[in-house]
Design goal:
The chain has 15 helices and 11 strands. The strands form 4 sheets. It has a 4-stranded antiparallel β-sheet. A 3-stranded antiparallel β-sheet has the order 1-3-2. The radius of gyration is 20 Å and the shape is globular. It starts with a helix and ends with a helix. It has 3 domains: 3-182, no CATH class; 191-249, Winged helix-like DNA-binding domain superfamily/Winged helix DNA-binding domain (Arc Repressor Mutant, subunit A); 262-343, no CATH class. The protein has helices at residues 3-10, 21-28, 38-44, 52-60, 79-103, 110-127, 132-141, 148-160, 179-182, 191-206, 211-218, 222-231, 270-273, 287-290, 333-343, and strands at 31-32, 64-68, 74-78, 164-166, 176-178, 236-241, 244-249, 262-265, 300-303, 306-311, 320-322.
């Protein structure tokens, strides 16, 4: 087993199989969307013919939804999966978020929560797509003033409750809309059905991966994650690699890898953040070059799947630096051209 090439193929970073952003996101289950501009490149890398216009259209039409969900962090999910993901993942994510609030000495009483939520809902209903500044203005008009940190928690809880989701795509600012208006209702799944479905999505798109990786990514209890794997039955099997058990599906992609490929990977990309243990592709001694202990991720360069350097996505010209020896003489211009042509469309 070569886990690096298998991950590249099944993450759609080599020989992508999908033609639209919505297809990519549904296949991936959920994609980290922490960096508002870079989330688009993360999807584009996995699309056969990436298009800014196609992403914006899908986002504005509600085919792609951005919200706080797994682990209480930003995610991109498909509209088809939105409501069932809220049911399965939000309860644990809300508990995690309340833990963060407690550690930051922030307490939101029930009466405040409902009063603020009513204002958020009315504001979003009136304008269809609103910014955080619009919420601040609406609260001020009602005599409510609060710092941005506290308001962010109100918005985040409303997202995880299925009240708010993303509005129209703007270049730099997050927007919000009423989920009931933006996302069509879907057939409700029971818990086991949803657990099996999203377990399958995770492993088919991130294999080979461990149980611990799935627990990390999903934010679910380990017992639920074990159950999700068991529900897949013979579709999933274990392969031993370097003393660890990795799960793989029976339809795993293993063909299509092309050697000599550089990838300019955005910060918070699923290629790293989708796993608890990242040593398969990232040497332990260079871990700090990709992310710190506070969960801040950097843009990284991969060569044939191995993380070997950093790059600067917002510069006019390609700026690449390598922390692995032997790469300085190699040419990353093709990867930069792909990125630059996409961002300048």
């Amino acid at each position: 087993m070569n886990p690096v090439t298998i991950r590249l193929l099944n993450q759609q970073l080599i020989a992508p199989q999908f033609s639209t952003p919505t297809e990519v996101i549904r296949y991936m289950g959920a994609m980290q969307a922490q960096e508002y501009r870079m989330m688009r490149w993360a999807v584009a890398m996995r699309t056969q013919k990436p298009s800014h216009k196609a992403f914006k259209q899908a986002f504005d039409e509600g085919q792609i939804i951005r919200l706080h969900l797994m682990r209480g962090t930003w995610q991109l999910v498909s509209a088809e999966d939105y409501w069932s993901m809220i049911d399965l993942f939000a309860p644990k994510a809300i508990a995690v978020t309340k833990g963060w609030m407690s550690s930051n000495k922030i307490s939101i009483p029930a009466d405040e929560l409902m009063r603020v939520r009513d204002i958020l809902v009315r504001t979003a209903a009136d304008k269809r797509s609103v910014t955080k500044d619009d919420f601040v203005l609406a609260l001020t008009e009602k005599g409510l003033k609060m710092d941005g940190h506290r308001l962010s928690y109100h918005i985040r809880i409303a997202e995880m409750a299925g009240i708010l989701c993303s509005g129209d795509l703007q270049p730099m600012k997050a927007t919000y809309a009423l989920a009931a208006d933006k996302v069509k209702s879907t057939v409700k799944m029971d818990k086991d059905e949803a657990l099996a479905y999203y377990t399958r999505q995770y492993f088919q798109s991130r294999q080979p991966a461990t149980l611990e990786d799935f627990v990390w990514w999903s934010g679910l209890n380990i017992s639920d994650c074990r159950k999700g794997i068991a529900l897949l039955g013979d579709y999933i099997h274990v392969e031993r690699y370097r003393g660890r058990d990795f799960y793989m599906t029976d339809d795993c992609r293993t063909r299509g890898f092309r050697k000599g490929t550089f990838l300019l990977i955005p910060p918070y990309d699923e290629y790293l953040i989708g796993y608890k243990s990242r040593d398969i592709v990232l040497p332990q001694e260079h871990r700090h070059r990709a992310h710190n202990n506070s969960g801040i991720f950097q843009p990284v360069i991969a060569y044939d799947g191995k993380i070997c350097g950093n790059w600067s996505p917002f510069k006019e010209y390609c700026q690449a630096s390598f922390f692995e020896e032997g790469f300085e003489s190699l040419d990353v211009s093709e990867a930069w051209q792909s990125y630059n042509s996409y961002r300048n469309k």
